[in-house]
Design goal:
Layout lengths: L10 H4 L6 E2 L2 E2 L5 H17 L3 H15 L5 E3 L1 H7 L3 E6 L10 H13 L4 E6 L3 H13 L2 E7 H6 L1 H9 L3 E5 L6 H15 L3 E3 L10 H24 L5 E5 L4 H7 L8 E9 L10 H4 L1 E5 L2 E5 L24 H8 L3 E7 H15 L5 H17 L3 E6 L7 H8 L3
Helix pairs in contact: 3-5, 5-6, 5-10, 6-8, 10-11, 14-15
Length: 405
Amino acid sequence: MEKKNFDFSTYFKNYPDNDGYFGNYGGAYIAPELKAAMEEITDAYFTICKSTKFIGELRRIRREFQGRPTPISHLERLSASIGNVQLYAKREDLNHTGAHKINHCMGEALLAKYMGKKKVIAETGAGSHGVALATAAAYFGLECDIYMGSVDIAKQAPNVARMKILGANVIEVKEGLATLKEAVDAAFEAYSREYKDCIYCIGSVVGPHPFPMMVRDFQSVVGVEAREQFLSMTGELPDALVACVGGGSNSMGIFSGFLGDPVDIYGVEPGGIGKELGNHAASLTYGEEGIMHGFKSIMLKGDDGEPAPVYSVASGLDYPSSGPEHAFLRDIGRVKYDAISDDETIDAFFKLSRLEGIIPAIESAHAVAYACKLARDMKRGSILINLSGRGDKDMDFIIEKYGIK
């Protein structure tokens, strides 16, 4: 199905369907004992998402606590270093806690409070989701358990410290590759034991229904703001939109504001250090259909059909699948997904820092790198980048691995 034949005017009413599917992807592949828990969450969400009291409270929190709306910055010097294409950045790094993750964490924690839950459980890779949920838990007076792989704990020490200061219980996961997939495995296992008293606040547009939909809806504020702001700044829409994609929450948030517009959209995956399996985490570029963590999507598989080992220089992108809505948007041709290498990413990290005074998260630097590459090909026009987070969390790792160039 091609983009030109697809009607986006009713897209959000039809996707996902009642069973949580975006076309062939999504659903809820979960143990029988968790089905009631998911139905409880779904019913609660559909109740409060139409409630003026809930919507009003979330808007107040975004305005008074998060610091929304976040601005768009014109990256004039970076643009001039490339050519005539003008680059802009939606500054999600200026959110309280330093990344887009707070957008859905405050919503999920507010939902947990409405449902009478006492605890929130989550996984984290780069630590941004963990910090955001720990912040939300402190704000609402909830207990908080964060599962994090040993590898990511070593790479993201500042965020680990922040979670602990905020009162979260950070639980180290040592199994397997000890990265994001294993953290999700451990968090799901804990949730299956404690679901009556807690809610699992998934950190991206992944997992069983209703989480891909819920996280997208909470993140859609990014796209709504960005569209209005860009029109106000320039009098027109951007020619292209670029965002990094791991699980895909930041990208789905900004993409959702432009799906029905004549804007080219690009999702940027971690190309790592090579195309061989285990050297990247570009599931939509190199993967195939599969089921993991309660949902069907495109994933990287080993010879045994199980999720393959993955790698990314960015802890928040080292996941062997992507959200089901991304798989659907790829299939219908609305979004083009491509990969960018570690070397290109780190080069963009330093360029944005030196030319614009903005130190990006390594995850976001993938989008910056791709936008620079795209700008060289386009020759003229404008590109809006979703700068999903700031790089404070990455400083120790960057200095140790790459030094100060």
